[in-house]
Specification:
5 helices, 191 residues, mainly alpha
């Protein structure tokens, strides 16, 4: 979606946004994606494993370490996503104001410097920019719908997994040890 959005941004006169957005956006997406894959996901898995060991074993009590891994991951993800949103907002506001001035300047130049048909061409430029904005917004909406469609399946799977653990803890409560019940009923929060 990014190449299409960049092209549509350039057709609307958002040359500054297109020039700045692509490198910053791609860098941030790759950086945060790599951090999630290589740092946060292992932290989550280690915390989950430590939580399970702590719930099952009497001798090994490492629940605090498990909670530390969990809270560290949550804080780090929150900071990373806050920086991502902040940088995108800052970049968007700065470049959109520059792009707005550029588009108005282009329309004024076409209207004033071309004799006889300048006003008609200026209105045509304004119409093309408006239609390109509509196309750009439509592509953005389609992109959001696609991302939601991609994310909905894992969210449903996680909800079903959590429900399964909760129901399993209710079913085995009369016959299982308290540690197993505690593991099944509380440990689903790690997923």
């Amino acid at each position: 979606m990014i190449p299409i959005l960049i092209t549509l941004m350039m057709t609307t006169g958002s040359i500054t946004s297109a020039g700045i957005a692509q490198p910053i956006l791609l860098f941030l997406i790759n950086f945060i994606g790599n951090m999630i894959t290589k740092v946060f996901l292992p932290f989550i898995l280690i915390g989950t494993a430590l939580g399970i060991i702590s719930k099952v074993s009497d001798r090994i009590q490492i629940g605090k370490i498990s909670k530390y891994f969990k809270s560290t991951t949550i804080w780090a993800l929150g900071i990373a996503l806050t920086l991502f949103v902040g940088i995108l907002s800052l970049e968007g506001s700065l470049s959109s104001s520059v792009d707005g001035i550029t588009a108005k300047t282009a329309k004024a130049a076409v209207s004033n410097f071309i004799p006889v048909v300048g006003k008609i061409l200026g209105d045509a430029v304004d119409t093309v920019i408006g239609c390109s904005n509509i196309l750009k917004n439509a592509v953005g909406i389609v992109g959001v719908i696609v991302v939601i469609g991609i994310c909905i399946i894992p969210i449903i799977k996680l909800a079903l997994l959590m429900g399964t653990y909760y129901i399993a803890s209710a079913i085995v409560e009369p016959i299982a040890d308290e540690k197993i019940i505690s593991l099944l009923s509380r440990n689903w929060r790690y997923f």
